[in-house]
Design brief:
8-stranded mixed β-sheet; about 750 residues; alpha/beta
Length: about 750
C-alpha cells in the first residue's frame, strides 16, 4: 500500500510503531555492553561478581543431587564418619556421588563469568535507562524468592526472557539449574524445542496441574535431601559446603509463568498440597540454594500472606494500582506509561525505594541464535545433562510404543520366566509426573492373585477404545503371546465400530461372542479349573498314583458326562490300574501304553499330565492352565451377571484367567461388583463422579486431554500417562438426501 493511500490515522500508527521499535533495547547490545563492563571491572557492576573457583587441578567437580546418594551415609556413626566417607568418595571420584568433572575453559567469549556460590543475580535491564547500570537484584540469603506481575501486553514475557538470557550468559550450567513451567504452553516451550540448552533441566509447557505439582515435589525432596546431607557433614548452607570441599552443587531456580493458573485450576486437595510444598520450599530454600520466581497478571487467590511474605524480590510491569500495591507495596507500576519498563522493589515497599529498569528485548531471530550459542558452549565444555521437555499437547505415534516393547522384550522375558506370580508386564506411556530420568514410561506388572482384573471405566468411548488398543499391543508383543487365548464378549457395538478388537488381537470370529450365554461357559471353565487345581494340590494325600489317576479320569469324564454310569466307572478303574506301583516319572510311558491298548481320547490324561508338569517340570499350579483373556466390551450392557460371576472374577487370575472389563457408564446393576474385582483401573475424562465412585483422586483436565489416569487399588497407587497417537475408524452416519429425492 502506498503512502498516498494511507489515512492520517494509518500514518500516525506507522510512526508510533517505528518509534516504538527504535526505543527497544536489543538484548544483544545489552549483553555486549554488560560483558564490556565486566571485562573492565567497572565499579558499578563488579561488586556483584565473583569469578568461578575451580580446584587445584583447574577442574570443577560437580556432585549429584544429594537425594541420589545421601543413603550412603546411613551406616555412619556421627559427623566425623560422614565427613571422612564423603571425602573418600570425592577422592575416589565415586560415580555414585560425582556427576561429572569439567575442565576449566576460558574460551567462552566473555560468558559464564560469575558463580552462584552466594546467590543468583537477576538482571532486569538498565537502571534508569543508563548503559553504565545493568544493576542486579540478587536472590540469596536476604531476598530468596521473587514475584513478577504485569497486565496483558505489559511485556511480562519479554521481561522473563531477558532475565533467563542473562542467567544463561552469567553462569555456567554447572552453577545453575533452571526449571521452567508455563501454563500458556507457548513461551517457555521454545527453550527446549530446538536446542538442549545446558542450564535448563526441565520445561513444563502444560496446564496439567499434576505435572507441575510433581515438579514442585521433586524440588522439595531434593531440597530436604540437601538439608539432611549438609547436617551429616556438619555444614549449614550451600556456600559452606562448596568452599570446604572445592565442589560445585548448583543453585536451583524454578520459574513459573501464569502462576495464578496453578491455583485457579487446582482442586481443593491439590491446592492444599501446593500450599504445603511452597511452605516447605520457601522455608528451607535459603540454606539449600533453592529459589522461586512466580509470574502472573495478578496474585489474588494464590498463596497465603505468610508464604507471600517470603517473596521479597518484587518486579512489576505496567498494571493497575491495586496489583502494584500488592506486589511492590506501592502504586508505582500504575504510573508506568512506556513499554519495556519494569519497577523493582526489595522489601521496603515505599515508592521512593522503587528501582526503574529498561528491559532488553529479545527478537525472534536472535532468540534461537543465542540459545544455540549457549548450547554450543555447553558442548565445548563437555557438560552433560538430562533435559525433560513436557509438552502437554505433543503425542508420540503408536510405532514409538512398539519400538519400546521391542527394546524391552528380553527384560520382560527375564521377569516373566523367573516369577510365576506375574501374568505379564504392560507398558502404558509417558508419565504425566516429573522424574529426572531420561525415559519415563509408566509400566505395570500384572500380578496374579485375588481380584487382579483390569477395569476400563470412562464416559468417553474413544478413550476406552484407546486403552484396549494399548493393552492389545502389549499382549501381542508379549513373550507369552502365543499362549494367550483371547475371548471377546461384545455388548457395545459402538466400540467395535470404532476399533475391531478381534482384528487387533488376530483372533477368529469364533472367539467373539454377542450373547450373555457365554458367561455360563466361563463359569463352567472356572469351576473345572478350580476342581483340577484342588485335586492336584491334594496329591500327597493319596496312598498311590493309582488312586489319584482314577479320580483324575473321573474328573475329566465329568466334563463330558454329567453322571457316570457304573460301567463307565469300571472302565476308568481299569485304566487307572496301569498306574499301580508306578511313580510320577512313569506317567508319559504309561500314557503311551494305554493309547496302544485302547482307542482313547487323549484329553482324559489332562489332569495327570498337569501333575507331571508340576512335580517333574516344576511348573506352578496356575501355569498349568492355558492363559485366557476375556474382554467384556460394554459391561454396563450385560444386564445382571450370572450369580457365580463374582466368585469367578474374584479368583480368576489364580487360574490363569484375566478379565478386561470395559464400561462407558458407571450407573449399572453390577458396577460395584465389577469395580471391586478390578485391581488395575484406567479412567479418563472430566466427570468427577467417575473418580469419586472409583475412589480415585480427581484433577481438572482440558477437554482434549491426552492423559489417562491409572490406579492399582491394592497398593493405593495412582499414576497418569500420555496416550500414543492412534486413529480410530471414522463412523459415517447414513442419511437420506431429501433434496435430491423430493426436488
Amino acid at each position: 500500500m502506498s503512502e498516498e493511500m494511507l489515512t492520517l490515522d494509518d500514518l500516525a500508527k506507522l510512526k508510533r510503531e517505528k518509534e516504538e521499535e527504535k526505543s527497544k533495547l536489543p538484548y544483544q547490545a545489552y549483553l555486549d555492553n554488560l560483558k564490556t563492563l565486566v571485562g573492565e571491572k567497572n565499579p558499578k557492576v563488579y561488586p556483584s561478581i565473583e569469578a568461578p573457583k575451580s580446584n587445584s587441578n583447574k577442574q570443577f567437580v560437580c556432585i549429584k543431587e544429594p537425594a541420589e546418594f545421601v543413603n550412603l551415609f546411613s551406616s555412619c556413626n556421627g559427623q566425623d564418619e560422614c565427613k571422612t566417607l564423603f571425602q573418600t568418595l570425592l577422592d575416589d571420584r565415586d560415580p555414585r556421588v560425582i556427576d561429572q568433572v569439567i575442565d576449566e575453559c576460558e574460551d567462552t567469549n566473555g560468558l559464564w563469568f560469575n558463580t552462584t556460590n552466594n546467590g543468583i543475580n537477576l538482571r532486569p535491564g538498565l537502571e534508569d535507562e543508563e548503559w553504565s547500570s545493568p544493576t542486579t537484584i540478587t536472590l540469596g540469603d536476604d531476598a530468596v524468592h521473587s514475584l513478577v506481575a504485569g497486565r496483558t501486553g505489559s511485556g511480562k514475557s519479554v521481561f522473563l526472557n531477558s532475565i533467563i538470557f542473562s542467567l544463561l550468559a552469567e553462569y555456567s550450567p554447572w552453577e545453575l539449574d533452571l526449571y521452567l513451567a508455563d501454563f500458556k504452553k507457548v513461551e517457555f516451550s521454545r527453550y527446549l524445542s530446538k536446542c538442549n540448552v545446558p542450564h535448563i533441566k526441565a520445561v513444563a509447557a502444560t496446564s496439567e496441574i499434576r505435572y507441575v505439582i510433581s515438579l514442585l515435589n521433586y524440588l522439595a525432596n531434593c531440597m530436604v535431601a540437601r538439608q539432611n546431607f549438609f547436617a551429616l557433614i556438619g555444614q549449614q548452607k550451600l556456600s559452606e559446603v562448596r568452599e570446604k570441599y572445592q565442589i560445585v552443587l548448583p543453585r536451583v531456580l524454578f520459574i513459573v509463568d501464569e502462576f495464578q493458573q496453578l491455583f485457579l485450576e487446582a482442586t481443593g486437595k491439590e491446592e492444599m498440597e501446593i500450599a504445603d510444598l511452597l511452605t516447605s520450599i520457601t522455608k528451607l530454600g535459603r540454606a539449600t540454594g533453592f529459589h522461586l520466581m512466580f509470574a502472573s497478571q495478578e496474585m489474588s487467590g494464590t498463596m497465603s500472606q505468610s508464604a507471600f511474605a517470603n517473596f521479597k524480590a518484587r518486579f512489576a510491569l505496567a498494571c493497575d494500582a491495586e496489583v502494584s500495591s500488592r506486589i511492590l507495596g506501592n502504586s508505582g507500576a500504575a504510573k508506568l506509561d512506556k513499554k519495556g519498563m519494569v519497577l523493582a522493589n526489595i522489601g521496603a515497599g515505599k515508592e521512593d525505594t522503587n528501582q526503574l529498569f529498561k528491559v532488553p528485548f529479545v527478537s525472534e531471530k536472535y532468540f534461537y541464535e543465542y540459545l544455540q550459542i549457549i548450547t554450543d558452549y555447553g558442548g565445548k565444555s563437555k557438560y552433560d545433562s538430562v533435559h525433560k521437555f513436557y509438552q502437554e499437547d505433543s503425542i508420540k505415534g503408536m510405532d514409538e510404543l512398539n519400538s519400546v516393547l521391542t527394546a524391552i522384550k528380553n527384560v520382560r522375558t527375564g521377569y516373566l520366566s523367573k516369577n510365576s506370580s506375574l501374568f505379564d508386564i504392560v507398558t502404558l506411556g509417558e508419565a504425566v509426573v516429573f522424574n529426572y530420568k531420561k525415559y519415563d514410561y509408566e509400566t505395570v506388572f500384572l500380578e496374579r492373585g485375588v481380584r487382579k482384573n483390569i477395569g476400563i471405566f470412562s464416559p468417553i468411548v474413544d478413550d476406552t477404545v484407546y486403552v484396549c488398543k494399548l493393552l492389545a499391543e502389549n499382549f501381542k508383543s508379549s513373550p507369552k503371546a502365543e499362549s494367550y487365548n483371547h475371548h471377546i464378549i461384545v455388548r457395545n457395538d459402538l466400540f467395535m465400530k470404532k476399533m475391531n478388537l478381534a482384528k487387533e488381537l488376530n483372533v477368529s470370529n469364533s472367539k467373539v461372542h454377542n450373547s450373555i450365554d457365554f458367561f455360563d461357559e466361563i463359569v463352567g471353565l472356572f469351576k473345572r479349573r478350580s476342581r483340577e487345581a484342588s485335586l492336584i494340590s491334594s496329591y500327597q494325600q493319596y496312598a498311590s498314583l493309582k488312586g489319584f489317576a482314577y479320580d483324575a479320569f473321573c474328573l475329566r469324564a465329568e466334563h463330558f458326562i454329567t453322571d457316570l454310569s457304573e460301567e463307565e466307572k469300571a472302565v476308568l478303574q481299569e485304566l487307572s490300574d496301569y498306574y499301580t506301583n508306578k511313580t510320577i516319572d512313569d506317567i508319559p510311558v504309561i500314557q503311551e501304553t494305554i493309547l496302544d491298548d485302547y482307542d482313547f481320547d487323549k484329553s482324559y490324561f489332562r489332569v495327570i499330565n498337569m501333575l507331571y508338569d508340576k512335580e517333574v517340570n516344576g511348573k506352578s499350579i496356575v501355569d498349568l492352565f492355558d492363559a485366557d483373556i476375556f474382554w467384556i466390551i460394554g459391561a454396563e450392557m450385560v444386564g445382571k451377571f450370572p450369580k457365580d460371576m463374582e466368585t469367578v472374577l474374584t479368583d480368576a487370575m489364580n487360574y490363569n484367567m484375566l478379565f478386561v472389563l470395559v464400561a462407558s457408564n458407571n450407573d449399572f446393576n453390577d458396577f460395584y461388583m465389577c469395580n471391586k474385582a478390578c485391581d488395575y483401573l484406567f479412567v479418563t475424562g472430566n466427570n468427577e463422579s467417575y473418580y469419586n465412585k472409583l475412589k480415585l483422586p480427581f484433577t481438572k483436565k482440558s477437554d482434549n486431554s491426552i492423559s489417562v489416569d491409572f490406579a492399582i487399588s491394592s497398593s493405593a497407587t495412582q499414576r497418569s500417562f500420555k496416550k500414543f497417537k492412534f486413529d480410530l475408524q471414522e463412523l459415517i452416519v447414513p442419511e437420506i438426501d431429501f433434496d435430491s429425492i423430493l426436488s
